């Protein structure tokens, strides 16, 4: 190894980010249950709670976006509206 390759290696390694200089990852904001969830049957409430919990695990397309997951259940239909904190709510389908 020559002096030149040693200096090049030291220079390159000094340019690599270290844990002290790397920016921390942004916080993961999970969704929150909507206002209608608490009025639903227990099985539906548990399902929404599991979905909300899954939004707090980084690395998935549905993760860390905040927002709200709501649920409305009736005898004829069910709807699961989701609102992203960074976007407008999606249009609702007619029942």
Summarize the model shown.
The chain is built from 2 helices and 5 strands; from the N terminus they run αβαββββ. The protein has 95 residues and is α+β, with helices and mostly antiparallel strands.
Structure description:
By secondary structure, the protein is α+β, with helices and mostly antiparallel strands. The protein has a domain of 53 residues. The protein has two helices and five strands. The strands form two sheets. A three-stranded mixed sheet has the order 1-2-5, with helices on one face. A two-stranded antiparallel ribbon has the order 3-4. The longest helix is centred in the first third of the chain and has 13 residues. The radius of gyration is 23 Å and the shape is elongated. It starts with a helix and ends in a 12-residue tail after the last strand.
Provide keyphrases for this structure.
alpha+beta, 95 residues, 2 helices, 5 strands, elongated, single chain
Number of strands: 5
- How far apart are the termini? 74 Å
Radius of gyration: 23 Å
User: Which residue ranges are poorly predicted, with pLDDT under 50 across at least 5 consecutive positions?
Assistant: none
Task: Work out the helicity level.
Answer: 25-40%
Globally, the shape reads elongated
Mean pLDDT: 75
The H-and-E topology, N to C, reads as HEHEEEE
Main sheet properties: 3 strands, mixed
Estimate what percentage of residues fall within beta strands: 5-15%
Number of helices: 2
How are the strands of the biggest sheet laid out side by side? 1-2-5
Helix/strand structural class = alpha+beta
């Amino acid at each position: 190894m020559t002096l030149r390759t040693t200096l090049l290696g030291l220079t390159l390694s000094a340019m690599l980010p270290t844990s002290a200089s790397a920016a921390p990852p942004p916080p993961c904001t999970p969704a929150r249950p909507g206002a209608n969830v608490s009025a639903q049957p227990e099985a539906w409430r548990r399902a929404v709670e599991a979905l909300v919990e899954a939004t707090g695990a980084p690395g998935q397309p549905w993760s860390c976006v905040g927002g709200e997951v709501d649920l409305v259940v009736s005898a004829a239909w069910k709807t699961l509206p989701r609102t992203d904190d960074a976007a407008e709510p999606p249009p609702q389908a007619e029942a």
